[in-house]
Structures are given as structure tokens and as C-alpha cells.
Amino acid sequence: MSRKKVRLAILGTGGMANVHAERFNAIPECQIVAAADVNLQRAEEFAGKHLIPTAYGSVKELLKKGDFDAVSIVAPDAFHAPLSIECLKAGKHVLCEKPLAVTYPDAKKMVAAAKRAGVINMVNLSYRDWPAIQAVAALVRDGAIGEVRHVEASYLQAWLASKIWGDWKTTPAWLWRLSSKHGSKGVLGDVGVHIVDFATFPVGPLREVYCKLKTFPKAPGNRIGEYVLDANDSAVLTVEFQNGAIGTIHTTRWCGGHANRLFLKIAGTKGTIEIDSDKTTAGYRICAGKDLDKALWRDVAVTEVPNNYQRFIKSIRTGKQDQPDFARGAEMQKVLDACYLSDDQAHPVKV
């Protein structure tokens, strides 16, 4: 275990970068020493807000002048691969926001670059931070509900149907997520990656996917200013897991009443287990054992677990790679690519 603090630089200083700064600043073994953004003024304002000593207007300048060990990449999706590979070549440990890349081939290049560099690499699948999913994954792997037969998973958001997070029609921070021209892969690429990970983390990888994507009219001419609103905003996946289980995974931004709800139900030969984030992220429900024949459910609370930011820093200090790593991110991107192909060809696709 290294006694030195991990010196971290944050690349990209938009909205989500504030979460990264707050989480890393809360870790005693980490020191944020720099921030970089193509908009230098934004980087400087971000650095001032979070008491970061240095701001840069490009990653090249950061790599040339900065003195740091690791980076946290919070740039738009299209920049994940090039920025990660550039930093990996420089020998820096990398935590990259999800999705790992825009395509599976790019994700594979990132995995290969990380392997060559021999450094810690992680993708920020943030719902791994919830105690509920960690506990459920362990129980399913240990056989607590027997052999898995059926899975139901959903990620529901309300911001297209309401103003729960503000008026999306007037905010570039939301409008870009609806426009493929601005780098969006729609709800599937934005949050679908989370629910696919949420379902497959406990159950195992997918064998086949049949996906339907839908983009609904949202404005006159489906355009607001420079933003053409053509990215998918609902996705439904019918899936088969490699273990033979089947299920549905779906996500939408049109579900009023759910600000940000993840739901997972896993049914096996010896019981069923369920997570509903609208109720709690620190526990789960289970119907198993003597309760199974009576269809009785039991609520179980679980203890807090380290978050991705803490595990990233610990991995650097110990030299022991933790999950979710770039290989996991690439596995999720392979599923998303299969979904886009399935929707385009209107038939199931092997993963």
C-alpha cells in the first residue's frame, strides 16, 4: 500500500465533473491537482470552485506540464476513447465515465491500451456504488435463488415528460442528449448501459438481444435551434442470457412519476429477488426458502459499500485492479452495438 496521496486530474469540467470533484475531494488519500477542458475559462471556474490549483485548456498541455498520477475523464462520450488512450500512453491510471466508448471497436482499443500500459483502468458504472446491487449479485452467484430463469429490468426517467430536472427544451445540457449530431447515442447509450450492467452483473452475460428503439416527436420539425432531436428516447430489449435465462430490459425518458428509477427482478428455481431504487438503494426484497410456497416477501437492509471513486484510488495505491474495469465497459458496449444492429435489421442479434 503506497503512503503517497494519488495526484488526480479531471478532464472535462461540465456538470458531472462536479460530482467527481466532490467524491474525490472526500477521499483523504487523493488530491485533485489539475482540471482540463477545451474551454479554459470553464476549467478555471471549475478549478476555483473546487480549490484545484491548476487549470489547463487542453489535455496535451496537461500531459506536458502537469505532475499527476491519474485522470478522471468526464468529457462527452465521443472523446472517451481518444482521451483515455492518450493518457494511458502517458502511463496514467484512468477512470472513464460511461459509456466507455461510442462503439465496441473503440472500446476494444481502450482495453488493449490499458493492458499495454499496465495501469489501473475503470469505467464509472455508478450504480455499482449501491449496496443493494452488490448484495444481490453476491446472493445470486452463491445460488440463493437457485438457477436463474427470468429477469425483468428497467431504468425509468421523467425529464421528457415533466420538468422534474428543469425545462429540457431550454437547456443545452439536456438537448445534446437528444441529438446524434451532438454525439448522443440516445437513451440506450446514455442510461441503457447502466441497466444492462445492472441486470448482467448478478446474472451473467447475454447471448442474444432483440432490440426496438423509438424516437418520439418532441418539437416542431423535431428540432430546437441547432439541435436535431433524432436520438432514441425509448428502448426495449428482449434478451437471452448465456445461462439460458430470458428477460426484458427497457429504458425511457418518458415515464412521469419516476425521476430516476432502476428496477431489477431476478427469478430463479428457488426464489425471486428484487431491487427498486424508488424504495431504497440500501436493501432488497426476497421471496425464497420457506416463504416461497406462501409468496411472502422479506425486506433486507444491507451495509454501505465503497463507491467507484474510492475503489479507483484504492486500486492505484494497492496495485490491485478492481471492477468495473475497461474490459467490463467494452462488454457493455458490445451489447449496445448489438442493440443498434438489431433495431436496424429488425431481428435478434447474437452478442
Q: Key terms for this structure?
A:
9-stranded mixed β-sheet; 10 helices; 351 residues; 17 strands; 27% strand; alpha/beta
Your description of this structure?
The protein contains 10 helices and 17 strands. The longest helix has 20 residues, at 326-345. The protein is an alpha/beta fold.
Rounded to the nearest angstrom, the distance between the terminal CA atoms is 39 Å
The counted number of beta strands is 17
So what's the oligomer here? single chain
Principal-axes shape call = globular
Number of helices: 10
Low-confidence stretches: none
Physical arrangement of strands within the biggest beta sheet: 16-15-14-13-7-12-11-8-17
Mean pLDDT figure: 96
Give the percentage of residues in beta strands. 25-35%
Largest sheet: 9 strands, mixed
| Proportion of residues in helical segments | 25-40%
Helix/strand order, N-terminal first: EHEHEHEHEHEHEHHEEEEEEEEEHHE
Please state the CA-atom Rg, rounded to the nearest Å: 21 Å
How would you classify the helix and strand content by structural class? alpha/beta
